[in-house]
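Protein modeling request. Please complete all fields; requests missing the sequence field cannot be processed.
Requester role: graduate student
Desired output: 3D structure, token encoding
Chains: 1
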Amino acid sequence: MAGADTTERLRQFLRELTPKARTLLIGELERCMLRGEDIAGVDLVLQELRRVVREQREGAPRVSTSSRLFFKPLEPFLVDDHGDHNHPHRIARSSLVPLWTWIGRDLLPSEAKSLGEQISGALLLSNEAKAETLTRRFQDRVVAAFESHFAPAASDDRLRRRLLAQVGTPRTSEDTDTMLCVLKNRDRLAELAGHLPLRIGNLTGGQLDSCKVLIESVAAFDRELFPYALLTVMHRMAAPWQLVRLATKAAGSDTAARVAETPYSIAVTIVIADLERMVGELRDELRTGRGVAVSALLKTIHDSARGLRTELDLPISSTWGRALGVIRGKIADLLRAEIESMPGRVRQLLRPRPSFEIPPNSVLDPEEVADVEALVEFVGSCRYFANELAVSEMTQRTFTELQGFLDRGMQPLLDGVRHAGEGDRGFRQSQADAAVRLCDKVFGHDYAAMMGKAAEVARTTDRKAS
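Delivered output (466 residues):
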């Protein structure tokens, strides 16, 4: 499919960038988003950047060419989350390796090995058509072999559970059901995808109507395909939460009870599950260190939570309303921990130290400086989304505290540089430089430039005195 090919080329390009280039790209794109600039595909690029960085950090297992081609029809239904989390009719990307291992070990071992060899030979000759034909033939064989393998377990739940346990994914029954349904209907779903734009910027008006018609034309062929048709559309959307607009359109109402009576109610469940996934991703990124497009992720979470609350009338007592309330509580707890830690981190970094505390010829740890700078920038980003995420008062208080500390604390740092000795000069200069970088995040470029000149004057005075 064209969309999957485009995404794969983008992912490959981002993998080939140096870590420094990726960091610079992330920072610039995030600033553009926060300034409200409309850049086509920025959300997709940032999403793929997060995925590439996570894969490289976590050492994701290598996937063979044959398995990548085999699972290609599943691309719209893959989700970057832990395999045990519930995402209706979707498969965690991390579950593909155990699925492929099971196919090659237990289901069709000889054919899987032969497929890999034949596909490698075809690709060496640049015969992509042959590789695709071989893959499709093997997909059909897997479907038939699975149905035959599990036929004796049709009326024996214990046997079925034992067979599924051999597959080895956390949600084996759901994963195998999704894989089989998509493989059996790959052509119909690919035809649906072929009628969609590569990127749906805003699902509204005529585009909303046409997507609804396409989804229902697929569902008319087989009702089992309805959620997969929804997810195919969602895969192309710049703002996946807008999937709920199909539900309100079908219900002719934004009332949760009316929406729940339609087949499109699954769209709301899918969006809430995806919002919970993003909150988990935010938690993981905050634990392992900022710098992987966290501000953009926070904006996406904010937009999704606000979209659900504005597009749907969700009573707190409803199932969806309670789920959204729990998620918003998790977001506030995550942000509270980060926001409240920020002033202390800055004070620890920049506090003036007596000379006996400073190791000779030392400087601030550059990684620590970058970490604190990213934290300050993150808290600054939180101000854009504070009202929806219930952290407005907390964010304002901590940011005001930071402004006061930098405003009062810059002069003692400059004095320290001006009167530094031979052993502590480098450390005090590194503190002043870090303070200037933080001033840029808090007060803006003009103020930071003024402080930078003051720091240079202090260094010049120090050199003359020496």
